[in-house]
Amino acid sequence: MTDTPAHTADTTVGPAALEDLRAQLRADPEMVTGDPALMAAVRDALAGESVVDLAQRARQKLEGELRRVRATNTVLIDLAKANLAAQAQTHGAVLAVMEAESLTALDRKLSGRAAGALGVDVIRVFIEGHAPLKAGAAIQGCAPDLVDALVGTKAERLGPVDTRFGDALYGPMGSGLRSEALARLEIGGRPGVLCLAARDARAFTPDQGADLLHFLARALERRIAPWLQA
């Protein structure tokens, strides 16, 4: 005599029953949302299918934007500090210019205190067709048309030292200078040029602003002109 196998209950839910369940859930979604255990099970099932966590994505986006804002702020702060330092340097040089009581004294200040205040190695002021001092170190005469040869039609030029004129402008130091800032002058009706030069190749670059350079140039024009007319 053989044993008859026991029948197991069939727990498979048919299509009709599934559709009925969906209809009930659509009609009363609180059957799931109001049941914490069911909601937890749904979340676990969704996480298992690698569904995107929108909150996490939003958080990551905000963190990325925050990093960019902080980087931008750092750049702006550094630029502001550099601008303040440049202003202080220029103001110190202008004060030295204004304190000079004679053209000879101004020549000495441009070669010493003003150059130190600006953090440059050489300052030169050239006046076309006129040498106001017989042995000026910083204030010198030059040939006509030199200014146009140096800056062209522009009011200034900043960047690497033009090696064609380095020795003529800066003498023995010319070969060691790497960057310069030139500003056109008009002194007592004569064209001129202010030259600042440094050994540091990054001291003057074409993308720098020239407002402070022109401020110093205008101060020199007003200070030197009366002595040329005297």
Give short descriptive properties of this protein.
9 helices, rod-shaped, five-stranded mixed sheet
Please tally the β strands and state the result. 5
Number of helices: 9
Widest sheet: strand ordering? 2-1-5-4-3
Q: At CATH's second level, what is the architecture of the largest domain?
A: 2-Layer Sandwich
Please estimate the helix content: 40-55%
Q: Based on Cα principal axes, name the global outline.
A: rod-shaped
CATH homologous superfamily classification of the largest domain? GAF domain
Structural class: alpha+beta
Q: Give the C-alpha Rg.
A: 39 Å
SSE order: HHHHHHEEHEHEEH
Question: How many domains in all?
Answer: 2
Describe the structure.
- The chain is α+β, with helices and mostly antiparallel strands and 230 residues long.
- The chain has two domains: 15-48, no CATH class; 98-229, 2-Layer Sandwich (Beta-Lactamase), CATH 3.30.450.
- Helix content is 53%, strand content 15%.
- The chain has helices at 15-27, 30-33, 36-48, 54-99, 103-111, 113-118, 146-151, 166-170, 211-229, and strands at 122-128, 139-142, 156-160, 179-187, 190-198.
- A five-stranded mixed sheet has the order 2-1-5-4-3.
- α4 packs parallel to α9.
Helix-strand blueprint:
Layout: H1 15-27, H2 30-33, H3 36-48, H4 54-99, H5 103-111, H6 113-118, E1 122-128, E2 139-142, H7 146-151, E3 156-160, H8 166-170, E4 179-187, E5 190-198, H9 211-229
Parallel strand pairs: 1-2
Antiparallel strand pairs: 1-5, 3-4, 4-5
Helix pairs in contact: 4-9
